[in-house]
Amino acid sequence: MRDNGSPDDLHLVLLHILEQLRSTGANLASLQAVSGGLAAPLLELAAVRRYSAVHDVVPESGALAVIAECAQELSASDNVVIDAALGLGLLGEQYARSGVSRRAIRQLSDRQLSKRRRALLENWLKLHEALSNAVDASSVGGAPTERDLRSSIEPAALKMLARQLVLRDRYSVGSSNSTSPATDENEQPVPGRKRGRILVIGAAVMDAVFRIRELPRWETSSEAHDFVFKPGGKGLTQAVAAARLGHRVSLVAAIADDRFGTEIINYLRANNVDTQLLKIVPGADTPFTGVLEMDLGDSLATYWRNDKEVRLDPWDCDEIAGELLASDAVLMTFEVPRETVEHALTLLRDAAGRRPATIVAAAQPYPDATLSPDVLKHIDYVVVHPWELRRLSSTGAQQFDPDPVARELMETGAGAVCLLLRGGCTMYSQSAHDVVQSPVFATIYKESAAARDAFCAGLADELIQSGERFSANAADWASAAMSCTIADYPLSNPLPTPERIGAMLTRFRLRR
């Protein structure tokens, strides 16, 4: 979204747009005609982008819907004036039920502003009486002059509408600072923030996401209300998330050379992720993940790894050892074979001098065994969900308690365990001998497939900024990154920028 400055600046920008739209009316055609110029700040509002993404409509339709919703939140008198001034046609049914003529109702939505004004003034009292449940019609008085309508009444109502749009953008679910994906490969970091070197070792696959409202019963089927086909995989998403935070990022993953592999590579490049360290596998088929995603973001998934063909092997890590050791942070996932993760950690163990911060997402735990104690002690952070933590336990206890299992991992050697649950984080820190509880940030959405990936990228980002190995602030920053992603989940690219994370932290006034 464009930076329109303070809320007051944005209010003036939106007011100008609304005043300009009076001449032709706020309709799809007029917005499309000026979408590249005049209406751009309106179309780029996060509230408009969210509505467009959720309802799968063009931004112009989303803008009209948000304007309509905001208008109806104002007083009935403002509503009457705005509906005619912009030709929205929102109140036609209420007018008809109250005996307003069909001719007058049509004129209130006419393309010519003069006809709309005339119909408004001629039917002033009737239109207000139609909304008598919301306003005392007796207090309305007679119709104003056209000069008063044009010079004071309309501007005052549009000013209230612009203010309501600002409030909707600022306080609706998600972001008022949401931005489009970066496209400049030479994008510079935010002033005052360090730009680090991050290496991500994981998977890049294609996701087939079916958005559903209820799970089908056994041996039945149900219709999805939306479908998304896009590059995915935890490694890929973590790499894109880290790049969104302004870092130089390379993804180390095995990629098939089919048409889907090409699409994945193009997607990475478009999101400023270096692809030179990818392992291209000729003649192979791209792995796929099928996802059933509910309206509030919680999901189920099944995956086909094709790991007999498309896989990273231990010797592949030897080829990128120099890049590995030169990084500021290394992110890994259990999407790659266990022996490959262990070999990469062994290379880090043997590093002379300062080694990168190491973050491992225990996604899709290995079915047969966990990592060996020899390499666990070279992991700074294990990022895990409760059900995955249970799989990492060696006790086999029927009654699962995450607390002793997390401490067991640290006793084995892991520096810290980040347990993610319901949008918050509990971090068990070996160095601090303490448990850090990062709060849950309010959002109506339960989860997002990219939430943990944003957490890992945010964690690496804050460790690079602070230069520390373990930090409560890093847990807060990473939790805010995760919560931003959950809150912005319906948007096509919900992964946050540093400004977005900072705004979330500022709103909740957390330590930093």
Summarize the structure.
Helix content is 44%, strand content 15%. With 512 residues, it is an alpha/beta fold. The strands form three sheets. It has a nine-stranded mixed β-sheet, sandwiched between helices.
Number of strands: 15
Largest sheet: 9 strands, mixed
What separation lies between the terminal Cα atoms? 26 Å
Tell me the fraction of residues in β-strands, as a range. 5-15%
Helix content: 40-55%
Indicate how many domains the architecture comprises. Answer: 2
> What is the CATH topology classification name of the largest domain?
UDP-N-acetylmuramoyl-L-alanine:D-glutamate ligase
Our Rg estimate from Cα atoms comes to 27 Å
CATH superfamily caption of the largest domain: Ribokinase
CATH hierarchy: architecture of the largest domain: 3-Layer(aba) Sandwich
Mean pLDDT across every amino acid position:
82
How is the largest sheet built, in terms of strand order?
6-4-1-10-11-12-13-14-15
Q: Quickly give the structural class.
A: alpha/beta
